[in-house]
Amino acid sequence: MIRVILPQHLRNLAHVDAEVTLDVEAPVTQRSVLDALEARYPMLRGAIRDHDTLERRPFLRFFACEEDLSHEPPDAPLPDAVASGKEPFLVIGAIAGG
């Protein structure tokens, strides 16, 4: 089981309270995790990734094992600790100001 932690606004949209667990077949990648997340919670389609390009939305970042994975290729394998469920895959809302 893959553990995913979403920012508050996406938890509200998906109607979940805490972390989400997903069954994801190997290889566990950003793409496979996000595909499984959007399949289980279709209301998140377009909120995390663009509908057409499937690129990460601005102001969202992906982290795992204390590393920023936001600019990693979407098909790169996630760390073993995430694939085994020991560590969560985090979707974090970035903060910007002027």
Brief overview:
The protein has 98 residues and is an alpha+beta fold. It has helices spanning 8-14, 30-40, 80-83, and strands at residues 2-5, 20-22, 60-64, 67-68, 89-93. The protein has 3 helices and 5 strands.
List the helices and strands and how they pair.
Layout: E1 2-5, H1 8-14, E2 20-22, H2 30-40, E3 60-64, E4 67-68, H3 80-83, E5 89-93
Parallel strand pairs: 1-5
Antiparallel strand pairs: 1-2, 3-4, 3-5
Report on the structure:
With 98 residues, the chain is an alpha+beta fold. It has a single domain, classed as Roll (Ubiquitin-like (UB roll)). It is built from three helices and five strands. The chain has a five-stranded mixed beta sheet, with helices on one face. Strand 3 and strand 4 form a beta hairpin. The relative contact order is 0.25. The mean pLDDT is 94.
- The tally of strands reads 5
Q: Please identify which CATH superfamily we are dealing with.
A: Beta-grasp domain
Structural class: alpha+beta
β-strand amount? 15-25%
- As for the CATH topology, it is Ubiquitin-like (UB roll)
Number of continuous helical runs: 3
Number of domains: 1
Q: Categorize the overall geometry.
A: globular
Q: What is the CA-atom radius of gyration, in angstroms?
A: 13 Å
CATH architectural group: Roll
